[in-house]
Amino acid sequence: MKQRSLRDLLYEQVARIGKAVSSPKRLELLDLLAQGEKSVDVLANELSADIKLTSAHLKALRDARLVTSRRDGKYVVYRLTGSDVAGLWVTLRQVAEEHLLELRLAVEQMAAEPNKLASVGRKALLEQARRGDVVVIDVRPQAEYEVAHLPYARSMPVAEIERRLAELPADKDIVAYCRGPFCLLSDEAVALLAAKGYRVRKILDGVSEWQAAGLPVQRATDTAATPERGRPGRHLARDNVASPTKTGGK
């Protein structure tokens, strides 16, 4: 094979990944599947799309070997083909925030109320949670928590918070998190708990951001007390949970 033809082939193969992630809906699917495997029905509901369109997007991701599927009874269940795929989504988002002013402004608008954001760094938060100085709550669905969660966090899906208020201490700060900076579940949790008189803040990190920063996570299947450590990410080496953008992160 001639040198030019070989180079064309190499770039063409890498471009398959770029083509697969060129759709906003497919990026959202990667973000959702980074939380754990999900059926097509669940994914379609999360996307606010019909089954046919969701399946087409999943096929494009599967053709690029970014996701794989299995059959569970009458359902087809999808998952990422590796943790590096979740890291790809985080890196893409980070690069976009670095270079696209429009995205940076949109993210900053989501965090426009600084009183809702925890200003403590990741490692400091981890230590505070270990000591019990703060209560960290994971407001995602229980199934996502069981796949992986931040160390010392307790599962409290946003739909269950109101009936489980007695489980939260009134004399400690509460820190909520969900799927990452594009997720609004933690905003719902903050609003609900603040209205009940709790001292509550949120972080913009999710499990994917935590792992990409090389910090530990825990899984429901873990038998050891030591959390599993994530792999450092090129764009997420900075230790700040309040803002993942260039303007706020360190």
Descriptive overview:
With 250 residues, this protein is an alpha/beta fold. Helix content is 44%, strand content 13%. It is built from ten helices and nine strands. A four-stranded parallel beta sheet has the order 5-4-6-7, sandwiched between helices. It has a three-stranded antiparallel beta sheet with strand order 1-3-2. The radius of gyration is 19 Å and the shape is globular. The termini are far apart. The C terminus is likely disordered.
Element layout with pairings:
Blueprint: H1 3-20, H2 24-33, E1 38-39, H3 40-47, H4 51-63, E2 67-72, E3 75-80, H5 83-99, H6 101-110, H7 122-131, E4 134-138, H8 142-147, E5 154-155, E6 173-177, H9 185-195, E7 200-202, H10 207-212, E8 216-217, E9 228-229
Parallel strand pairs: 4-5, 4-6, 6-7
Antiparallel strand pairs: 1-3, 2-3, 8-9
Helix pairs in contact: 2-5, 3-4, 5-6
Pairing-aware structural class of the strands and helices? alpha/beta
Please tell me the overall pLDDT.
86
Q: What's the SSE pattern?
A: HHEHHEEHHHEHEEHEHEE
What's the story with the biggest beta sheet?
4 strands, parallel
Short description:
44% of the residues lie in helices and 13% in strands. It is α/β, with parallel strands linked by helices.
Features:
3-stranded antiparallel sheet; disordered C terminus
